Amino acid sequence: MKFPNVAWAAGQHGLTHYQLAAAAEMSESRFSRCFSGRGEFTSDERQKLASRLRYPADWLFQEVSPPAVPTDVRLERARALVQADPKLRKVYQSFVTSFGYSEAEGLAAALGGRYSEGW
After folding, report:
1. Among residues 50, 44, 51, which one has the least CA distance to residue 3?
2. CATH 3.40.50.720 is held by the domain 4-60
């Protein structure tokens, strides 16, 4: 998924892809191609979606950047934290299996704010 913020905002409003496509005056197939990254939304389409979702277009369509990858020492500490907490372990596993993250990227994503340079 290229635009997770659009998916999140749509979920907050209970909107389907069909409804989003209609709001942007796009065909469902074009919306799907753009949403998955196989096409590009025009600026007009982005503005229409932002208006319907009531969030800024810049935020809805911002580039996703992966979390920082830990060093070896931090990687070991991150593994220990994730293994000790079932909720973190589940989040980590979803990042690795569902989104194709590497082990280090999955650990960094699962730990979020608890993951810092100061370890």
Report:
1. 50
2. no
